[in-house]
Amino acid sequence: MTVHNMRNKPVLIIEVSVSQTKDDITEKIRERMSLCPSLVGAIIVNFEEHPRYRKPEQDPVVPNDTLSEDEWDDLTADTFGSGPIVVRGNRWCGAITCCFDVWLRGGDTEPSVTQKQVIPGSSEGTAELDATLSELWRRVVRSVGGPQAQPVAFDANWDKFRRDIEQSLRNTALARYDNWIRSTKNRRRNEVSESPDSSKVKRSRV
Question: Is the residue at 189 inside a domain?
Fold first, then answer.
């Protein structure tokens, strides 16, 4: 995502990294910052899953064992906020970490980068990250609205952010479970359709 000013020049890049590696995203941001002098900064939100998900090798015991969202929430109620999520002996999501990298252009020097892990949270708090995001917000508002623009105060609600990500984590795990059930049903249906039909009556020899 890129935020542009009134002259359609980019002023802020926001990248959410899930499937791409952080190194690839960082290199892309560094290149764009060097080529676009109008950019005042960038934000990288990097999610990593440890270990990465792999579909169970075995089939479900009950092929039609689908679960509603409420049933899934009950089964995962005791899961630690950032995972992993294990249901019925299989891991549907690994432990999640989320880090913010906030880039601020520093004149002719290299951009300064503030890095902070926000999931799982730590006792250190987010004061430095909040201050950097506030400064970036101020610069973006003035780049878009002019030097006289007065931005509203920046206030990041990290507790809500973590709750939203935790719910998204549960939804992702349920989607993986549903896909496992559905793919098993489809495979078994195909195996049955491709097998010889023993119900056909063989012709008698004349």
Answer: no
